[in-house]
């Protein structure tokens, strides 16, 4: 880089190398250098903000999110980050109240800032919610139901604007010749992961005389546990990071019940949960 400036991708790749080597200051300074040269490349801003947040540098992350939202005012991703970013680590009890109020105010501001009138706005909002969740809000150990419900309604409105065909009521489908209840499980974590390992027991001891099991794996880290899920399923589908293909298959299977083992850890799961894909949906 002393010989040539390079392009934006070079700065991102180099920052990832530094991050893998745990040279975080070099990773962050590389991204900042790239942003000075390429101020409207969202990938550089996103990596800087998210990794600052994950490494406990909250104020720097908030400042970077504010800068990104001004440089890229139409990018919904940075509207979310600028309004809803919270710490991953709290050093004092008082910080929880401060950042919680910031989140409450930010959520109201985000809702007010959200416009879905044009196809461009609809697609931009969809792209934003496909990159982020409110996972770190739970680190405050408070009752988040009202806040998550309000954010969930916002996600629902964005999904309605983009997929109006998948929000209509679904009638309970009839039984097929085997008279079994068709039950589906959809998750990005149908692999070795603490958040869904417990589900293997549900599938293993499921009453096969009365239930037909469908699994929809939307992640892309298959391993031995993925094979276990497959063995315990009557039907197993793998749609890596493909929301539309997964939704189409679920609808085509005419499930009686659709279960989301986790909501909030992965953006696509939140998006799918805000649609109506089966007569009964639960988590």
Question: Could you explain the architecture of this structure?
Answer:
This protein has a 5-stranded parallel beta sheet with strand order 3-2-1-4-5, with helices on one face. The protein is globular. It has 2 domains: 8-162, Tetratricopeptide repeat domain (Serine Threonine Protein Phosphatase 5, Tetratricopeptide repeat, Alpha Horseshoe); 181-282, Rossmann fold. It is an alpha/beta fold and 283 residues long. Strand 4 (257-259), helix 13 (267-273) and strand 5 (280-282) form a beta-alpha-beta unit. It has helices spanning 8-20, 24-37, 42-54, 58-71, 76-84, 93-113, 119-129, 145-162, 194-197, 199-204, 224-231, 243-253, 267-273, and strands at residues 181-187, 211-217, 235-238, 257-259, 280-282. It contains 13 helices and 5 strands. Helices cover 53% and strands 8% of the residues.
The dominant shape is globular
CATH superfamily of the largest domain: Tetratricopeptide repeat domain
Succession of helices and strands: HHHHHHHHEHHEHEHEHE
**Overall CATH class of the largest domain:** Mainly Alpha
């Amino acid at each position: 880089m002393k010989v040539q400036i390079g392009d934006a991708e070079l700065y991102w790749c180099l920052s990832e190398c530094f991050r893998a080597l745990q040279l975080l200051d070099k990773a962050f300074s590389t991204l900042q250098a790239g942003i000075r040269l390429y101020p409207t490349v969202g990938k550089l801003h996103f990596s800087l903000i998210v990794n600052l947040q994950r490494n406990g540098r909250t104020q720097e992350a908030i400042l970077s999110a504010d800068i990104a939202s001004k440089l890229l005012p139409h990018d919904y991703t940075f509207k979310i980050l600028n309004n809803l970013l919270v710490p991953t680590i709290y050093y004092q009890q008082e910080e929880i109240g401060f950042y919680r109020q910031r989140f409450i105010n930010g959520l109201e501001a985000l809702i007010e800032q959200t416009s879905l009138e044009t196809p461009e706005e609809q697609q931009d909002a969809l792209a934003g919610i496909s990159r982020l969740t409110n996972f770190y809000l739970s680190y405050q150990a408070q009752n988040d139901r009202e806040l998550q419900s309000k954010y969930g309604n916002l996600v629902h409105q964005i999904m309605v604007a983009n997929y109006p065909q998948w929000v209509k009521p679904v009638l309970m489908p009839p039984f097929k010749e085997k008279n079994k209840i068709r039950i589906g499980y959809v998750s990005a974590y149908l692999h070795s992961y603490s958040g869904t390992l417990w589900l293997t027991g549900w599938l293993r001891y499921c009453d096969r005389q009365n239930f037909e099991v469908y699994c929809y794996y939307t992640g892309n880290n298959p391993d031995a546990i993925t094979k276990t899920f497959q063995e315990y399923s009557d039907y197993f589908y793998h749609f890596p990071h493909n929301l539309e293909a997964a939704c189409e298959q679920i609808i085509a299977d005419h499930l009686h019940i659709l279960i989301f083992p986790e909501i909030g850890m992965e953006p696509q799961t939140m998006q799918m949960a805000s649609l109506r894909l089966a007569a009964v949906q639960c988590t």
